[in-house]
Amino acid sequence: MKIGDVQLKNRFILAPMAGYGDVAFRSLCSSFGAGYTVSEMVSVKGLLHGGEKTLALLRTAPTENPVGVQLFGSEPDEFYRVIRECEELSKFDVIDVNMGCPVPKVTKQGEGCALMKDPARAAKIVSACKKATDKPVTVKFRLGWDSFTAIDFARAVTEAGADAITVHGRTKEQGYGGKCDLNALMSVKESVTVPFIASGDARESNIDKYDFADGVMIGRGALGNPDIFAALLGKDREDPLALLKKHYEEALGYFDERYVAATMRKHLAFYLKRLGISGEEKSGIVLAPAVSDVLELTARALKKRGGE
Question: How far apart are CA 35 and CA 67, in angstroms?
């Protein structure tokens, strides 16, 4: 699969996930074979103001090739300026524009999925991005705000120059509840000529249902499960405890231990579920103050379970 002139390693893509898709997690997924990775959402306004926390989201790993950056905002001229002026964006292969985030604090600013209610503005944003760079520009959006409008929206952004689109199979009003509507996604795919990436509920067990799409994004299905990409490529999975250790090692290569101990807790919950650890044991592990404590308590819980 290609996006513009960028060749992907395969059709299995790590979705941009705010709060989860930091450089360490993306690097880990890449090492297991993700064909393409995309950064967490990055605010255009934040980049224009040079915010340290915003710039920190732009870190990339050597294993990420190719890698895209996902930008969000609502003003076409701000997209143009940041793409032209922010040198940190030069290392990314693809510019992706978020037009699907359903979070109220984003949509209240006219950003994310709110742009689906204003296709003319969305098209202007895509045009501004295309004028600012010769890199491929893609758009990620949903089936609609509260009804199915994705076909008309897809036409608007592709006519404005989008080189590929990613569509999540739910409306904004659905959030992440209910089932992903694969039939609706198929109809959007049939309405465009650019590469189409399907997003929503993709797992190893149902991946064949996404064969209609050129690419498929793996989001929540990769949490605690970054080796899903190896499995999708027909390769062996990792031992879950060894995988957890590898994730911590990767994170410590980019962040200090205090930060890692705190931010890894949300990932840890998914690993512990995969390991079958719950209840009081899970609570004790999640609240452990240091990385070494987490790994020791996890290994102890598994050993105890093995002896029962």
Answer: 9
Q: What does the alpha-carbon distance between residue 193 and residue 38 come to, in Å, rounded to a whole number?
A: 22
Give the N- to C-terminal CA distance of the chain in Å, as an integer. 48
- Hey, which residues does 226 pair with through a beta bridge? none
- Calculate the alpha carbon distances from 300 to 26, 280, 291 in Å: 28, 13, 14
Q: Which of 101, 113, 129, 180 is catalytic?
A: 101
Is 101 annotated as catalytic? yes
pTM tops 0.85? yes
State how far the alpha carbon of 209 is from the alpha carbons of 9, 27, 216, 248, 281, in Å: 21, 27, 10, 33, 37
pLDDT values of the chain reduced to their tens digit, one per residue, 308 residues: 999 999 999 999 999 999 999 999 999 999 999 999 999 999 999 999 988 889 889 999 999 999 999 999 999 999 999 999 999 999 999 999 999 999 999 999 999 999 999 999 999 999 999 999 999 999 999 999 999 999 999 999 999 999 999 999 999 999 988 899 999 999 999 999 999 999 999 999 999 999 999 999 999 999 999 999 999 999 999 999 999 999 999 999 999 998 899 899 999 999 999 999 999 999 999 999 899 999 999 999 998 876 54
Q: How far apart are CA 68 and CA 216, in angstroms?
A: 15
Q: How far apart are CA 67 and CA 123, in angstroms?
A: 23
Q: Which amino acid is at 108?
A: K
Beta strand ranges found along 34-109 (DSSP E): 36-43, 67-72, 94-99
